[in-house]
Amino acid sequence: MMRQVYRRVFDRAGKVVVEEVPVPTPAAHDVLVGVRYSLISAGTEAATLQKTPLELARQTWSDPWLRANVKEMLTSGGWRATADRVMDQLSMPRPVGYSGAGVVLETGREVEGIRPGVRVAFATGGHAEVVCVSRNLLVPIPDGVDDRSACFVTVGGICMQGVRRSGAEIGDVVAVIGQGLIGQVTSQILLAAGANVIGIDVNPAKLARSRAAGVGEVIDASAADPVAAVRRLTGGLGADRVIVCAQTDDADVANQAMQMCRRQGRVTFVGIVRMDLERMPFFLGELDLGFSRAYGPGLYDPRYESGATDYPRHYVRWTAQENMAEFLRLVASGKVHIADFINGIYPVERAQEAYDRVFDRHDPTIAILLEYRPAALTPEARQVARVPRPAPHDAVRFGVIGAGNFTRGVHLPSLARHPRATITCVATRSSGEGGLQAATRFGVERHVSDSALVLNAADVDAVLIATRHDAHADLTIAAAGAGKAVFCEKPPALSREELQAAAAAVRTAGVPYAVDYNRRYAPLTRRLLQLVSGPPLLVHYTVSIQALTPEHWTLDPDEGGGRLLGESDHFFDLMNVIAGSEPVEVMASAIVRPPQTLVTQCNFVVQVRYANGSIGTLTYTDLGHPRFPRERVQVFAGGAVLTLDDFARLEVLTSRRKLFRRPRGKGHAEALDAFIRACRGEPVPELAGLEAAEAAFGCCLAAMESLCTGRVAGVGTHGEARAAGDAAAPAGRRVG
């Protein structure tokens, strides 16, 4: 195990806690680093730690979709369940820290060119004895650069990007507003590039440090008008470039930056300042306004940040990684000096003392380091034992792989309350805050970072798989091979081959298996099924969701599979249950808005024909309004119309109208209960097992095939027959 620093969300005084968590397990593109030093940046981390729970409430209230989600939680789960999920978020330990240096301990299977024992500096990762970092977010430390200086690499990357965005050239006069750590390093980089720097701040101690570091002119903005001073120093012309590195709510700072810039100059914002901008300085000066985002191209791109892809240097010369590497080169050359910025070094167990200095207004601290002992990997390092809750001797013992928001908010409370279940261990691969929260709240005996420690544990009877979609099939195969029962979050796989392999493993092992197709277990679903007459039926299922950003992981073809393959089997399963028959054929159409593809689009209509003559239609869209039900199921049968809204309201229209309300959720607890009964050897006819998974996900695969070909596609054995007839179709036109 290792120690890591987390923030306390409810505490605005900068309180942190050092927790013991498992050493992370690197993914394919990750590098495991034994940390020697990490940087506490007084400006950035102080702002992070001062965020309050009230900000979350304000964000929720300002977003109509989030307001709708809260309303849905209240109507479907009640006040207690909603309060539990909100408290889980507010009490969640949050890792802090974003810059450090250390030695490579281990690399993922796809990492090349980096070997154990090499000194590296990294971004993200947090304040921890061992961090797991993407290969794109670390760089080797050049000879001549010590670990203490190297751990400033992220700050250096931020400053490099700010200077590049400003467009500063040799000989330019550049005013740098804010002489904290970011401003100091920015000034040094500008000096190294041949610019003339004017440092501006309200703190005389910071200005004295800037002058000692080589800044030729400094302005105390608390004692003099900075605009007039810059104009005087430039002969009335104004600065060629202005870079704002300050962090303030004072709107005058942004407007003064415009006023001190020469005509057709450029103002670049690196720090966070209030932006009540006046128009006339822009208009009269024909000024350019720019922003610098983090430390270069690649940040906020999930595929770059994960290391799955890199940008070609011919087209993106200065990526985030290249900016970090160039900063260290400047340090190695002696053109940028870092050691003088360090105000103190504390061992990680004294992290609170370090943060107390950061929050002391009378302390001129701008940078403090945390120091760590040399780390070593041992078999015991990837697990932390905790005091378990007592459990019945005949309880089904669960190992949980994945502890995201949904798992902690829904599955783990259900398991903790179940009289015949107990949670033996929980696995989270990387930073560990989800597993730490789960272990603390639910009395889990072991928190581990390697799923193999769950799969091979003698005290685990059943595995709950709640990772991202691309791992579901592989973990199912491994768990079944280990003789464990499997409860898998949807989808069961992301391709036909994965589903077939997982199904074969489960059937060979003969273990209980279920997918969390919870809608079929919801109380109002059971009532609807009791009221529906026999076939033929028409089932209309409408799903109206909030639009996702293109970078959302569920839209990644490899990791999430898109909304059709990654989520829709939920809805097909419920239509299959209501129709009470085998799905036979599927026809699909979609709206594809560039740069979307058939996989990543979020607006589609799928019609399913059943063997008993029934027809189901799924409409999935992000074009709707948050006040419309997120899920509406309408069933037309035998002279009746049944409408189920968000599994909280069921309206039945026959010769007279009936209305049922049951604010008891979407059936997640009931789904787990059915699985637990199956694990105990009880017959469970309603269990969403392999046949249900093959039928529901088969509809997804057939719908994707139909989108690609523009024709009707068969499901299951019907799909296999059709595939044989389509063997001559062009490559790339068949899916699955």
Task: Give the helix/strand layout.
Elements: E1 2-7, E2 16-21, E3 30-41, H1 42-49, H2 53-62, H3 64-90, E4 94-95, E5 99-107, E6 119-123, E7 130-134, E8 138-140, H4 147-150, H5 153-166, E9 173-177, H6 181-192, E10 196-201, H7 204-212, E11 217-220, H8 226-233, E12 239-244, H9 251-259, E13 261-269, H10 279-285, E14 288-291, E15 297-300, H11 302-305, H12 320-333, E16 345-347, H13 351-358, E17 367-371, E18 383-385, E19 396-401, H14 405-417, E20 421-427, H15 433-442, E21 446-448, H16 451-455, E22 462-465, H17 472-481, E23 485-488, H18 496-509, E24 513-515, H19 523-531, E25 538-544, H20 562-567, H21 569-579, E26 583-590, E27 604-610, E28 615-621, E29 631-637, E30 640-645, E31 649-653, E32 657-661, H22 668-679, H23 690-709, E33 713-714, H24 717-725
Parallel strand pairs: 9-10, 9-12, 10-11, 12-13, 13-14, 16-17, 19-20, 19-22, 20-21, 22-23, 23-24, 25-28
Antiparallel strand pairs: 1-2, 1-4, 3-5, 3-7, 3-17, 5-6, 6-8, 18-21, 25-29, 26-27, 26-33, 27-28, 29-30, 30-31, 31-32
Helix pairs in contact: 2-3, 3-14, 5-6, 5-12, 14-15, 17-18, 18-23, 21-23
